[in-house]
Amino acid sequence: MINVFQPNLGEAELLALSEVFASNWLGHGPRTDEFEARFADHIGVEPDRMVFLNSGTAGLFLATELLDLGPGDEVVLPSVSFVAAANAIAATGARPVFCDVDPHGLHPTVEHVERAMTPRTRAVIVLHYGGYPGEVAGIAALCRQRGVPLVEDAACAVASTADGRACGTFGDIALWSFDAMKVLVTGDGGMLYVRDPQLARRARVLAYHGLEQPSGFAHAKVSERWWELDVRSFGRRVIGNDLTAALGTVQLARLPANVARRREVATAYDSLLTNTPGVRLPPPLPEGHRSSYYFYWVQMDPLIRDRVAATLLAQDIYTTFKYPPLHRVPAYGDRATDLPGTDLATDSTLLLPLHQALSDAEIRTVADALCEAVTHHLALAGA
């Protein structure tokens, strides 16, 4: 099977894990601190603004808590988002308000976000679809003008930049995902960035049970009764650990080479699929933008998209669509919602395999199979 997503791990990751095992300390510790510091350097921020978590989803939930969202509040986000974003909003009692996206680039424009905002808007969450920065600079400016916090869901954008600035640093809060299928993987894990230093400290407290000062060996050096608890807010345990942080540190070092290979794969698809009848390629990156190349998507007549996907699957080529629009999800859905760009993109878009372990032969296999399937199904549909 040629997979859509696939990590590449090797001896360096095994060595890092063995060192953690040898240390006999598997939980939150020095390797977690190191990973936070190195990731902070990677995006150009202070290390004390970063919190390594057990998932990007935990970062979304923490973000909504940090913003003190509640009943009566609204949060604008694109309908083409992972369900975790809407879940995090709804869990506070606030209401997700879905905005449209560009049907070709699948990211919201400044106009889309502004159109969805009301006097009840308390925050905006923007997703960097497939690693493309999109109009994040303009959306950040709009949010500052309106006095509304911006949360960047940079799960797909671990190495993406716009005009030299890392995605995740335009808004007030950002999160990245390091699950098993991402560009940088730790098995499960995520990183949270909080611009305001006091709010960043609160995030760290909430991520570990609400403890103002952890009770344990480190606290024993500064307190006579280190086992006593100082809890002033209700938190949970969503911190990362030294095992996953060790993987993350190695993967961060691999990141430039991995992204370079992903760029080669995307460029090869561009070359092989250009001028293919019935196939539309992703939009070119604007000048000054760099992508993590998490997704490579093509678009075709909605009448044949599902049939093409089935044909490729029968040939052991796995394709998919991410992310199913949230305004169609039963928990949030309102099919009467008018989001024409989202609906068109949802029904016509297919993600092709894209990962750094993809061979040149596999790239050509995917491209040839796609061309044949599209041609075949267009002919059957009489299009």
TrEMBL record:
GO MF annotations in UniProt: transaminase activity
Gene3D superfamilies recorded: Aspartate Aminotransferase, domain 1 (3.90.1150.10), Type I PLP-dependent aspartate aminotransferase-like (Major domain) (3.40.640.10)
Xref: InterPro entries: DegT/StrS_aminotransferase, PyrdxlP-dep_Trfase, PyrdxlP-dep_Trfase_major, PyrdxlP-dep_Trfase_small
Membership in a protein family: Belongs to the DegT/DnrJ/EryC1 family. L-glutamine:2-deoxy-scyllo-inosose/scyllo-inosose aminotransferase subfamily.
Needed cofactors: pyridoxal 5'-phosphate
Protein's name according to its UniProt entry: DegT/DnrJ/EryC1/StrS family aminotransferase
Lineage: Bacteria, Bacillati, Actinomycetota, Actinomycetes, Kitasatosporales
CDD domains tied to this protein: AHBA_syn
Keywords assigned: Aminotransferase, Pyridoxal phosphate, Transferase
Stored Pfam families: DegT_DnrJ_EryC1
